[in-house]
Amino acid sequence: MSKNILAHAAKELGRRLEQLARVSDVRGETTRTFMSPAMGRANALVGAWMQAADLDVREDVVGNIIGRLPSKKAGAKTFLFGSHLDTVRDAGRFDGALGVLLPIAALQVIRRMGLVLPFSVEIVGFSEEEGVRFSSAYLGSKGYTGRLSQSDLELRDASGLSVAEVLAAHNGKSVSAPKAAHSKDDLIGYLEVHIEQGPVLEAKGLATGVVSAISGQTRARVSFTGRAGHAGTTPMALRRDALAGAAEFILEVEALAKARPPLVATVGWISAFPGATNVIAGGVELSLDVRHPKNDDRVAAFDDLGRIARSIARRRKLGFSVKATQDNGAVTCSGSLTELLERSVRACQGESMALPSGAGHDAVIVSSVAPVAMLFVRCKKGLSHHPDEFVHPRDLEAALSVVVDFLTRMAHQPAA
Ligand code: HGY
Ligand code: MN
Ligand code: MN
Question: Is residue 85 included in any domain, yes or no?
Fold first, then answer.
């Protein structure tokens, strides 16, 4: 593998990540949410890059952009790469996009090396992984793997629009949940390249690492209902203040998670109604995100938080509800794929380390149809879900060399 070809491809990859980051629904930041105008423009840009890499490009009914390099070998199976093109609000330029653009670059390097792969390759830019618009993640990969459910289609965004209505508008006709793009026996496996979004690789001085397992996560919407009232005339003892109750609950969420490491639990957003300075909040809705590498511990923590919410509501004479909007078990990465990936990492950087992922990834969903592996790439200070997210160009090149080496090894695997 020539160093020059790699260095040039890595430089172009860095440039494309910058260019894609400017495709946003909000000027001056990187924000792309499910089926937004910016997502359409991102798909057009990534689709053009896929086309330039001689991939056959299509977009499916849930807005995934898919580039396919068909093998010339009759009956060849397919190896998948992918990650998400949607982002959190005011995001960085690497989370998701790296796992779509890097494999495109890797295929261009492979072609320049004259290597013909004995299997087809499909690169998927998933349309929705972060769960920003509908508070439930993975709508893109669920659509691609045939796991989009009726309850997913009925989820509603802040404006009251359902997933089904958004898909109908996008496709110009109502669409039912799509079937899986591939049958299980057509797939060799899936590799997702993703920034670590944590500090471990940086602390170890490693550019890349392999993922052992991905934590399970439960997301929910919690609401407290009290009674709105005049902030100036309602005595404190007579109040049923929904926002005060929610505040007490949020501190209990933090305390419970701190008491049970490695559990993590987060309230990321809160809305208070009617939301006026001089009105006691009559209603509150907030998000809850609970994660743990072990499923039993995550479920127990979520149940305990429900009991805590109930006791706060009872004491404060508030109504309350807890509605899970997403529930994904922990996923262990495929041993054989990860072992092959470790060989590539060792060949490229001398040593390899395995680490768990606290963040969720599309690999969680794809694991239902194919063996999955993940390559983590060092990011500065582990910062992510933030505009200062940063991967050094040297580490882009390192990750690219690992994936090119991995594809080369895959090509020489028996009966790939
Ligand atoms: O929230 C997550 O774990 C990921 O960033 N979607
Ligand atoms: Mn993310
Ligand atoms: Mn991500």
Answer: yes
